[in-house]
Amino acid sequence: MSTFKREDLKNLQPYEVEKEKYEIKLDANESFIEYEEKIKDEMAKVIKKVSLNRYPDGSCEELCRLYGKYIGVDESNIVAGNGSDELIGVIMNAFLNRGDTLGTVFPDFSMYKVYSQLLSINFKEIYDYTMDEIYVDLIIENINESKCDLFILSNPNNPTGKIIGRSDIIKLLKGVNCLVVIDEAYMEFASESVVDLVNEFENLIVLRTCSKALGLAFLRLGFCICNKALKNEILKAKSPFNVSGLSGELGKVVFQNREVIYENIDRLLKERDRVYEKLKGNKNLQCVKPNGNFIFIKSDYADRIYEKLLDRGIRVRNFSGKLKDYFRITIGSEKDNERLLHELLKI
Ligand code: PMP
Questions:
Q1: Given strand 317-318, what is the order of strands in its sheet?
Q2: 293 lines ligand 1 (CB under 6 A)
Q3: Core-most of 75, 144, 156, 320, by most CB within 10 Å?
Q4: What is the pLDDT of residues 300-316, one digit of tens each?
Q5: Which mutation among 27, 82, 85 tests ligand 1's pocket best, with the greatest number of atoms within 8 A of CB?
Q6: Using CA atoms, how far apart are residues 201 and 322, in angstroms rounded to an integer?
Q7: CATH code of the domain made up of 20-35+259-346
Q8: What are 224-268's pLDDT values in tens digits?
């Protein structure tokens, strides 16, 4: 008897992260800013007080309340997750049947496809984001024509950094017949959020993460924001204690120090714009105007650039297949970016 019954997953590769250490790591869209000692001391104190023998609060009430204050939404509209990654799977489990259609754009965050495969959901890329312009009317038309049961989009988009404005997202929410998940993983670097509209639209779910602007990738904290009816369905599909108690406690410390978060975002944005200004206009590097903490670049020499940077201890993100002429750089510290610019502009 074969133990492997999922023939359809035969070609699916486990998600692998490069373990080799590079001096400068600009490949995973993490924040380059570490929390200062004062906050880490506060965290250490909090950790000392937890009861390790007890389960944490499975509904993460206090965590959601504090995060809700940060994004301006009531906690009753929020579900916490073990990273927003987990919540993508939970949402699909909650709302899609085997054989239903999930629509997204090309390119977008790779895990949308992985979860679709795991759940035997029909995955359809209904729009090409590598085109110069984004036509929202066409996106709406394609969602409807493809009879999508759920449409998911990262906005700002990873990896392109392109963004659809709030008014166009509203148009999309009104123009389609399906559930729409707007993954705002990078929205703190832009200002087109629709998170305040979750109670106005019965088909809107917003995803947020603490791994990017908040610089907490290590903790694995993400949030799903939606109306109460949708939340109730999502709760049915999540495991009881999905967020580690330690992560929850540490996250709360950061949410109580909101001024530090805003300072860090300001610093990151200044650095992003500085790097973009230096790169744009370079005839060998076609940069997409960034709306996240990374820059997406097209170049005939993409592969060569990637290899040369690696040789010099700098790891950026390269792509293959239809994106083989592209690479993506995460904005690093002022010092690391100087090194990167020096090497990039020399190639
Ligand atoms: N959505 C998008 C668009 C992302 O780029 C990422 C991480 N790269 C995630 C979700 C997942 O983030 P996390 O699980 O760390 O919250």
A1: 286-287, 294-298, 326-330, 317-318
A2: no
A3: 156
A4: 999 999 999 999 999 99
A5: 85
A6: 35
A7: 3.90.1150.10
A8: 999 999 999 999 999 999 999 999 999 999 999 999 999 999 999
Q: Is the pTM of this model over 0.85?
A: yes
Biggest distance spanned by C-alpha atoms of the chain: 61
Q: Calculate how far, in angstroms, residue 347's C-alpha sits from the geometric centre of ligand 1.
A: 31
The predicted pLDDT at position 16 comes to: 84
Q: What is the residue type of 302?
A: A
User: Which residues are bridge partners to 296 per DSSP?
Assistant: 328
Topology of the domain covering 48-257: Aspartate Aminotransferase; domain 2 (3.40.640)
Q: From ligand 1's centre to the CA of 205, what distance in Å?
A: 15
User: The tokens of 188 are what?
Assistant: 């703190």
Q: Rounded to whole angstroms, how far apart are CA atoms 183 and 207? A: 5
Cβ burial 187-216 (10 Å sphere, 16+ → b, else e): bbbbebbbbebbeebebbbbbbbbbbbbbb
**Where exactly are the structural domains of the chain?**
20-35+259-346, 48-257
Is the CB–ligand 1 distance for residue 154 below 6 Å?
A: yes
Amino acid code (one letter) for 287: C
